Amino acid sequence: xxxxxxxxxxxxxxxxxxxxxxxxTFGLNADAIRLVTAEPVARIDLYVQAMKHRSLGRxxxxxxxxxxxxxxxxxxxxxxxxxAHFVFETFPDRDEGFLTRLRSKLVNTxxxxxRAGRIGIGELVLLSENAEQDRGRANExxxxxxxxxxxxxxxxxxGIEAATRFVHRTALEGxxxxxxxxxxxxxxxxxxxxxxxxxxxxPSYRVLLEEGPGHERTFTVEAVVRGQGIATGRAGSKKQAxxxxxxxxxxALARSGE
Length: 258
Fold this sequence. Notes:
Blueprint: H1 3-15, H2 30-37, H3 44-51, H4 63-66, H5 69-90, H6 96-107, H7 109-118, H8 121-124, H9 129-133, H10 140-158, H11 160-172, H12 177-182, H13 187-197, E1 204-211, E2 218-225, E3 228-235, H14 238-256
Antiparallel strand pairs: 1-2, 2-3
């Protein structure tokens, strides 16, 4: 058995325990899922869990077991693999820095939330009444998490080929990747504004590692927010590494709700 089928089988055993008898469907059906994924549905329970925000289970179910958080964890890795493989094959002559920047622009919270909204995931998300009233269906973090969880559910239900088709169709088709990669995003400014808006100290950056000969140095830089290093970036210049670290820090803060 090759590596990917072995990984798929292990992930299904680890994440995909059958739970149809214990997890209600909340009115979500296979037809609604197929309209979004364009793939067959064998196990509706996986997709119900993928759409279930933790707010729905508060006070009734253990969040890790009955929300989409575990599937989000799995889907994040599947999504990262599919995107990394695609950009690696599409740009065979580009260096690691280019590939890293492009991948980060395709999988950040804002990008994930945008594509989730475009394909109608917001209409399927299962929320508590309070989260619903608080415009949870338009919340970037909730949408991005649901997209990743859906990728994880699709991977477990139909395999890596189906998950790859879904990611290609929803995340890559119609995007000018060259233009996206070349677009300058000042993540350091965004992180500074984010911190100032919350009354936090100004973020700082520290070099963790310098590698390579003098003419081809690679820097690993850590973004420090409120005195704590929360994300790193790696590039051929300190400036670019700081930008990547800031982008990763913004994603980490978004995921934590801060």
